[in-house]
Amino acid sequence: MGRMLIGRDTILDLESVEYKWIEALSHDGVKHEEINASIQRCLGGDDESADLLRRVAMRQCPPNMLIEHLDAMEKGVAMKGER
Asked: Which of 11, 14, 15, 43 is the most exposed place for a label (fewest CB within 10 A)?
C-alpha cells in the first residue's frame, strides 16, 4: 500500500486538475477498475483511497470521506510502528 501523493488542499478542491483528469477518463468510457488502477499508479494510495478519489471526482461522495479514510490509514500505520 502506497501513500496518496496529493494533499488535503487538492482533495478539497473539486476543480483540481486531478479531478478533471479522472472526470475525463470516465467521460471517455474508461471502466471504474481501470480508472482506479490509473489513480494508484499515478497518485498512489490503496484500492479504497483510489476508489474514493474517483467517487469524489464524479461527485458521488464528499471529499471528507476520502480525508477520513486517509487519516484512518495514517493512524493505523502509526499504531503498527509503535509495536
From this structure: 15
Contact present, 32 and 77 (Cβ < 8 Å):
no
What does pTM read for this prediction? Answer: 0.89
pLDDT tens per residue across span 33-58: 999 999 999 999 999 999 999 999 99
CA gyration radius for the chain? 13
What 3 state SS string does the chain have?
CCCCCCCHHHHHCCCCHHHHHHHHHHHCCCCHHHHHHHHHHHHCCCHHHHHHHHHHHCCCCCHHHHHHHHHHHHHHHHHHHHC
58-72 burial by CB neighbour count: b if 16+ within 10 A, else e? eeeeebeebeebbee
